[in-house]
Specification:
This protein is mostly helical. The chain has a domain of 86 residues. The chain has 4 helices and no strands. The radius of gyration is 23 Å and the shape is elongated.
Amino acid sequence: MKRLGIAALLSAAGLALAGCSEVTNAVDQTNKAATKVSACAEALSLADLNPDPATLKERAADKERRLRELANSVGEKDVAGALTGMADSYLQAQKENIHDAGKVADWTKRNLDRLDALRKVCA
């Protein structure tokens, strides 16, 4: 009888642990989704849709750094890749003579393409 009680107790403990594992997985998934949503929202707010050539180069370093931080914080490779692509765009803005109107237009087009890629993976 004592063995039956111990077996029942072990079974109950096993079920409880299995339940804990499911709860832990659900919490992990929720945290990953929240991280993705917050990273996507912040990245979208960082995007320059109508850049001012006078300040674009100055602000590009901060935006690049923040986008790379976001990419490192997100567990999903496709989202991290889109964030890195946007960061690369701001790195490019730092290196180019972005004051020329034609270059600003080209950079904006490329940035919009990268922003579209981000929107798709964040949806």
